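Weekly sync, protein design subgroup
Attendees: M.S., D.O., the rotation student, P.L. (late)

Item 1: inverse folding check
M.S. brought a backbone from last month's batch and wanted to see whether the design step gives back something sensible before we order anything. D.O. pointed out we never logged the input encoding, so this time it goes straight into the notes. Structure tokens as presented (340 positions):
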């Protein structure tokens, strides 16, 4: 036998000791190598017959094998005992704090949409739906938006190869609803909208709107102002003010833009409202008679109001968010702060 063979045997012994996962397995390794009839005593016995030049190295390696293996076996035994003690049933420590489990919560955008559905439900509105992929007709033509209107620009609209587009607003749902049923109509339509906007603190290429439409006899601007103000105060609290500013939309006449007073600073001016005290929510107005004609309603017998609402804008003042991108990052630390 050569000295080098003992070195190899040592390596094998140490590997087996490391792999042994139970006290019994460790004992098997010990018996195999160090036991009375084990491999090491065998080597020692053979030492006297070995080549004289090999003997000193053989003796040294055999000793190393014995000591290193014994030490490793002892270390492994202690570690296994410790692990067994921790998992033993009687080691249960009733004073340890409970395990913390991360709960999910509704996303702020979903919460505003759900709250809006509930609030408008009490005002007699049902929920309507329309496709995200729209035709030019529903997104623009039927809404009295002429072919040269700037909102049709390729800069604003995602056009698909099929000639369809990703809706730039929820307003096409108005048309689909009126086409499908006679007046009176009272619906809201929450959903995603898409525009080729460069993302920044207040813009996103994908955002949410809630469309509203109320058509009947003698529906007036006063109804529009009253219902939007009622909604704002039910959603944000009685202190919220709403202001209406004259504006232009092709599908309403007259048209307004409207703002909610900033809930974060109480209207004094802050980072969220860019120091103005107000947040622009979206547009609204009295349904343009030309739109009624397109869907086959008689503008002589019905009137109606319509509005859009930017859900992200409402989220910003409701939750004090100064950057719209936080709503899409899915950063758990942010979402947990808003969880209810
Ligand atoms: N669709 C408009 C937009 O995205 C918002 C809007 C304005 C909706 C007036 C309406 C309305 O229903 O009557 O800018």
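Designed sequence read out in the meeting:
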């Amino acid at each position: 036998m050569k000295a080098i063979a003992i070195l190899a045997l040592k390596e094998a012994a140490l590997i087996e000791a490391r792999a042994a996962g139970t006290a019994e397995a460790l004992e098997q390794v010990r018996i195999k190598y160090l036991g009375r009839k084990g491999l090491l005593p065998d080597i020692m016995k053979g030492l006297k017959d070995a080549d004289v030049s090999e003997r000193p190295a053989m003796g040294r390696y055999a000793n190393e094998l014995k000591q290193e293996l014994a030490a490793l076996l002892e270390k492994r035994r202690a570690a296994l005992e410790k692990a067994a003690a921790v998992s033993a049933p009687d080691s249960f420590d009733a004073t340890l704090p409970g395990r913390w489990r991360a709960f999910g919560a509704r996303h702020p955008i979903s919460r505003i949409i759900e709250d809006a559905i509930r609030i408008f439900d009490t005002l007699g509105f049902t929920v309507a739906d329309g496709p995200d992929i729209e035709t030019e007709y529903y997104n623009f033509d039927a809404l009295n938006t002429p072919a040269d209107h700037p909102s049709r620009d390729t800069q604003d609209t995602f056009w698909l190869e099929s000639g369809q587009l990703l809706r730039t607003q929820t307003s096409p749902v108005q048309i689909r609803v009126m086409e499908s049923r006679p007046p009176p109509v009272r619906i809201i339509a929450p959903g995603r909208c898409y525009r080729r906007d460069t993302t920044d603190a207040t813009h996103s290429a994908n955002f949410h709107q809630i469309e509203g439409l109320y058509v009947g006899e003698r529906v007036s601007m006063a109804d529009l102002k009253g219902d939007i103000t009622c909604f704002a105060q039910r959603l944000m609290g009685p202190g919220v003010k709403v202001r209406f500013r004259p504006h232009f939309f092709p599908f309403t006449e007259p048209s307004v833009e409207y703002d909610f007073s900033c809930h974060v600073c109480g209207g004094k001016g802050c980072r969220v409202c860019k120091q103005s005290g107000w947040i622009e929510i979206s547009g609204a107005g009295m349904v343009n008679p030309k739109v009624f004609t397109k869907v086959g309603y008689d503008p002589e017998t019905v009137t109606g109001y319509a509005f859009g609402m930017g859900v992200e804008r409402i989220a910003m003042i409701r939750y004090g968010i100064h950057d719209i991108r936080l709503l899409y990052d899915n950063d758990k630390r942010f979402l947990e702060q808003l969880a209810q």
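Discussion: The radius of gyration is 38 Å. Residues 169, 171, 211, 249, 252, 255, 282-285, 306-308 surround 3,4-dihydroxyphenylalanine (CB under 6 Å).
Action: P.L. to compare against the previous round before Friday.
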